[in-house]
Amino acid sequence: MATHTVTTEWKNNRLFKSDNPNGATILMDTSKELGGNEVGASPKALMLSSLAGCSGLDVVMILEKMKVSGYDLQIKINADLTEEHPKYYDKVHVDYMFFGNDLDEEKITKAVNLSIDKYCGVLEMFRKFATVTTHIHFSK
């Protein structure tokens, strides 16, 4: 079993700096209306970025193994926060948007579905507390 450790340090005001097991760091902050300076990412929004990054990495790696190229990928996530505290995302919709000429829609769909159904651990964590829906879009 793998164990990941992160250390998060309060810098000032509402700003925190957090490390990652690979050595990268991120800044987290909040809105000005909540006393922050908006110089870092929102912790809740980072969860959505983590979901997009996890699934996106899966999809790109699977498509590479399938020898699929000539596409651009954008992942857009819309999520609804509950009204009452503790506020959390209870509905999450993930749009996978592929751009390119001669897209192999069958292989791309298979790669996305493998991420959604089998590989993306972050998506699986979201399923524990949210209804997750997905859609694949193809454009030139």
Automatic annotation (TrEMBL):
EC number(s) recorded for this UniProt protein: 1.11.1.-
Oxidoreductase recorded as keyword: yes
Protein keywords: Oxidoreductase, Peroxidase
MF GO annotations: peroxidase activity
Pfam families, alphabetized: OsmC
InterPro entries on file: KH_dom-like_a/b, OsmC/Ohr_fam, OsmC/Ohrsf
Chain segments annotated as transmembrane: none
Catalytic EC class: oxidoreductase
PANTHER family: PROTEIN YHFA
Protein name, per record: OsmC family protein
Protein source organism: Tenacibaculum geojense
Taxonomic lineage of the native organism: Bacteria, Pseudomonadati, Bacteroidota, Flavobacteriia, Flavobacteriales
